[in-house]
Amino acid sequence: MNLTKEIKQPAVLSVPASGRELPLMEAFYTIQGEGYNTGKAAYFIRLGGCDIGCHWCDVKESWDAAAHPLTSVASIVAQAQQYPGKAVVVTGGEPLIYNLDLLTLTLQQAGILTFLETSGAYPLSGSWDWVCVSPKKFKKPLPSVLAKADELKVIVFNKSDFAWAEEHAGQVAPHTRLYLQPEWSKAQQIVPDIVDYVKNNPKWQVSLQTHKYLNIP
Ligand code: SF4
């Protein structure tokens, strides 16, 4: 059954091309739980708006951009500056729907590292210290974004996803770190397969959603 057909896709709010204001769903200071930067203190900026439609999405509230207040970049950065950890994770939703040049430059000027979490389905904007591309089946990543990935993080829902992961590994740069991460609701069933796969294909590493085990956001 294709569950994605049952999901109504939200309209994405159009925002000024300048990116001076962005639909902010939530922002919070926590620990990055996944991928290369696991364990690092980071301020998360979650932007509203996504038209990808993953059926297992755990932040469906983010999809409707209009449900989240347009917030000035100045205000977003001022909040981020309050915390001792000088790294920000920009996530969504799909943050690359918006022009992120101003947000990332302002953060970097404030001495804050900029980490991106994206599906790669929209052109890359912004100045990034780390780009994590997590490709989704429902809207393919752009080759131009895959080429800029520091990290490729593939969510594994079933065994056929390993072949799909390899397809994308063939499109990233040689230095790109490769991660396989179990989809949370399937973790118990699929983790043994991921462990076997990584042991046999050691260019990959396991990524776990450690924040969920730590019971933090
Ligand atoms: S791309 Fe991310 S936010 Fe959008 S539907 Fe998929 S998991 Fe959810």
TrEMBL record:
<feature type="binding site">
    <location>
        <position position="46"/>
    </location>
    <ligand>
        <name>substrate</name>
    </ligand>
</feature>
<dbReference type="GO" id="GO:0051539">
    <property type="term" value="F:4 iron, 4 sulfur cluster binding"/>
</dbReference>
<dbReference type="GO" id="GO:0016840">
    <property type="term" value="F:carbon-nitrogen lyase activity"/>
</dbReference>
<feature type="binding site">
    <location>
        <position position="93"/>
    </location>
    <ligand>
        <name>S-adenosyl-L-methionine</name>
    </ligand>
</feature>
<dbReference type="InterPro" id="IPR013785">
    <property type="entry name" value="Aldolase_TIM"/>
</dbReference>
<dbReference type="GO" id="GO:0008616">
    <property type="term" value="P:tRNA queuosine(34) biosynthetic process"/>
</dbReference>
<keyword id="KW-0460">Magnesium</keyword>
<keyword id="KW-0560">Oxidoreductase</keyword>
<feature type="binding site">
    <location>
        <position position="57"/>
    </location>
    <ligand>
        <name>[4Fe-4S] cluster</name>
    </ligand>
</feature>
<feature type="binding site">
    <location>
        <begin position="56"/>
        <end position="58"/>
    </location>
    <ligand>
        <name>S-adenosyl-L-methionine</name>
    </ligand>
</feature>
<keyword id="KW-0456">Lyase</keyword>
<comment type="pathway">
    <text>Purine metabolism; 7-cyano-7-deazaguanine biosynthesis.</text>
</comment>
<keyword id="KW-0004">4Fe-4S</keyword>
<protein>
    <recommendedName>
        <fullName>7-carboxy-7-deazaguanine synthase</fullName>
        <ecNumber>4.3.99.3</ecNumber>
    </recommendedName>
</protein>
<dbReference type="InterPro" id="IPR058240">
    <property type="entry name" value="rSAM_sf"/>
</dbReference>
<keyword id="KW-0479">Metal-binding</keyword>
<feature type="binding site">
    <location>
        <begin position="31"/>
        <end position="33"/>
    </location>
    <ligand>
        <name>substrate</name>
    </ligand>
</feature>
<feature type="binding site">
    <location>
        <begin position="134"/>
        <end position="136"/>
    </location>
    <ligand>
        <name>S-adenosyl-L-methionine</name>
    </ligand>
</feature>
<dbReference type="InterPro" id="IPR007197">
    <property type="entry name" value="rSAM"/>
</dbReference>
<feature type="binding site">
    <location>
        <position position="50"/>
    </location>
    <ligand>
        <name>[4Fe-4S] cluster</name>
    </ligand>
</feature>
<dbReference type="InterPro" id="IPR024924">
    <property type="entry name" value="7-CO-7-deazaguanine_synth-like"/>
</dbReference>
<feature type="binding site">
    <location>
        <position position="54"/>
    </location>
    <ligand>
        <name>[4Fe-4S] cluster</name>
    </ligand>
</feature>
<comment type="similarity">
    <text>Belongs to the radical SAM superfamily. 7-carboxy-7-deazaguanine synthase family.</text>
</comment>
<feature type="domain" description="Radical SAM core">
    <location>
        <begin position="37"/>
        <end position="217"/>
    </location>
</feature>
<comment type="subunit">
    <text>Homodimer.</text>
</comment>
<keyword id="KW-0949">S-adenosyl-L-methionine</keyword>
<feature type="binding site">
    <location>
        <position position="91"/>
    </location>
    <ligand>
        <name>substrate</name>
    </ligand>
</feature>
<feature type="binding site">
    <location>
        <position position="217"/>
    </location>
    <ligand>
        <name>substrate</name>
    </ligand>
</feature>
<dbReference type="GO" id="GO:0016491">
    <property type="term" value="F:oxidoreductase activity"/>
</dbReference>
<dbReference type="Pfam" id="PF04055">
    <property type="entry name" value="Radical_SAM"/>
</dbReference>
<comment type="function">
    <text>Catalyzes the complex heterocyclic radical-mediated conversion of 6-carboxy-5,6,7,8-tetrahydropterin (CPH4) to 7-carboxy-7-deazaguanine (CDG), a step common to the biosynthetic pathways of all 7-deazapurine-containing compounds.</text>
</comment>
<dbReference type="GO" id="GO:1904047">
    <property type="term" value="F:S-adenosyl-L-methionine binding"/>
</dbReference>
<keyword id="KW-0408">Iron</keyword>
<dbReference type="GO" id="GO:0000287">
    <property type="term" value="F:magnesium ion binding"/>
</dbReference>
<keyword id="KW-0411">Iron-sulfur</keyword>
<keyword id="KW-0671">Queuosine biosynthesis</keyword>
